[in-house]
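Continuing from yesterday's entry. The apo prediction looked reasonable, so today I'm repeating it with flavin-adenine dinucleotide included to see how the binding region is handled. Same sequence as before; SMILES copied from the compound registry.
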Amino acid sequence: MFRTSVQNTEVACAEVAVIGGGLAGVATALRLQAAGLSTVVVEAHGHLGGCAGYWRHKGFSFDVGATTLVDFEPGGVGAELLASTGVPPLAGEALPGYEAWLPDRRVSLHRDQAAWHAERLRAFGDDRAHRRFWALLDQLATTFWAASRRGVRLPVRSAADLVRDVRILGADLPQVRHLGRTLGGALRDCGLAEDRALRALLGMLVEDTVHSTVDRAPLINAALGVTIRGAGLTRATGGMHGFWRTLAGRYRSLGGVVLAGTRVSRVDGSAGGFTVETGRGPVRARRVVFAVPAPTAARLHDGLGRRLDRYLRRDAGEMGGAVLVFLGVPADEVAGSSFTHHQLLESYEKPMGDGNNMFVSVSAPGDEISAPSGHRAVMISTHTSLAGWRLPEDAYRQRKKEITEHLVTQARRVYPRLGERAVVSATGTPRTYERFGFRPGGAVGGPHQTLRNTNQFAIPHDLGGRGIWLVGDSTWPGLGTVACVLGSRIVAEGILKEKP
Ligand SMILES: Cc1cc2nc3c(=O)[nH]c(=O)nc-3n(C[C@H](O)[C@H](O)[C@H](O)COP(=O)(O)OP(=O)(O)OC[C@H]3O[C@@H](n4cnc5c(N)ncnc54)[C@H](O)[C@@H]3O)c2cc1C
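Holo prediction written out below.
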């Protein structure tokens, strides 16, 4: 591996070029670098992170998307990444769970299984139908979390994949019969379709994890999404800023190269000889990993674009956006709650999104990377439709102001004085994700998951053919930190198996 700073001459040369320095890209590069391959990560933004990144202002460090890392504790999918690449275990707050605020009740989403089992029966009813429904969800979650940790692969692309998955599932193989069911279908089968509060809570959880609705979410994916607390949620000390310091530090110490502030405009070539064109000059590599949203990957490489076309057309109507409010506040404004994370629903009647289902994350007390002494960083996020933000400048500004006020007002159900003396107050919209995160159209999180586009129908990691790999929240298993890490394992293993 070598680098030069001469404009328009080769800026880097490596065995593998990874385009995109979000979690999926860096996790893949880190695995490969640790296995002895030379890698270079080419990232358009000024630093690594993407949708699991951060921005700093006035001594605060705010997470710009993901605030919680999923399954990073011992035995988990994330922990496997850290252990296999020599990254120390994550320092941070292992969340005991979080609080869901429904219009007429509060439900503590405990991480502890026994406490959660008791809480859900208390909140929604202790009868045969509810017990049957939760038992089904628990069974699926147990089976498929275990399969994820053991490295299950989808879509099945070869006989070897099939054999591997069958072995991993073992005696639980019959559970795959649920692959064609939705969460809504399971509720109906248990006689709970009319349980408004339960439907609402499930709707909140699946919107956040698989970007879908109760009636459209594939049952197995929904079961995993609804149980992510049980898998372990961690907010690193310093939030994503702290996490990236550790991850990027390890990657560089292994000899990995990061070209930050370097946008890729085109990729040409085939296995053994790719040229990655960037604003700073070409990068040469024998293989390429596209760790960018699928529409970007399609634009960068012609052959890959042709193969992705049918997936992109299928998913075009399934993309969504997010709005985030960042507040830097005196610590007393967020005092009084035992949980640092809350999810709120304003109304059972209104559709979800735009504040009706929003997430509030507060940095841990004493976390002085996230906030100056005596202060806390607060991130409030909600889903939004992209079409609603295609507005002329004045209308855009007005909408941004209104949604900011709305989100802060809703968050005051938890913290009544929130934002009264804010040191920092800023709002990100789909435009922000487009500008700073290079997400086409501002879409985040991959397509809404349905039976038509997940699992066996997801975009395969090896779709591009020899030497070309895809990873990240557009590919299986979809969005979220745990999904990106799982994808990175599949891609790194695939590259290591490819003959040079
Ligand atoms: C508001 C919000 C809250 C979330 N909360 C959580 C959570 O709490 N827990 C969780 O697990 N997940 C959460 N997620 C999901 C999670 O953040 C994402 O699924 C994940 O970070 C996606 O990672 P990625 O690497 O696939 O994509 P990205 O993070 O988008 O990374 C792609 C990278 O490629 C770069 N790039 C793009 N185009 C180019 C180019 N042409 N040249 C070079 N570089 C380029 C981008 O700058 C970016 O850094 C949340 C997402 C959002 C938006």
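Comparison notes:
- Residues 19-25, 42-45, 50-52, 65-68, 70, 263-264, 291-292, 296, 322, 324, 381, 437-439, 444-445, 472-473, 479-482, 484 surround flavin-adenine dinucleotide (CB under 6 Å).
- Residues 1-7 have pLDDT under 50 and may be disordered.
Will overlay with the apo model tomorrow.
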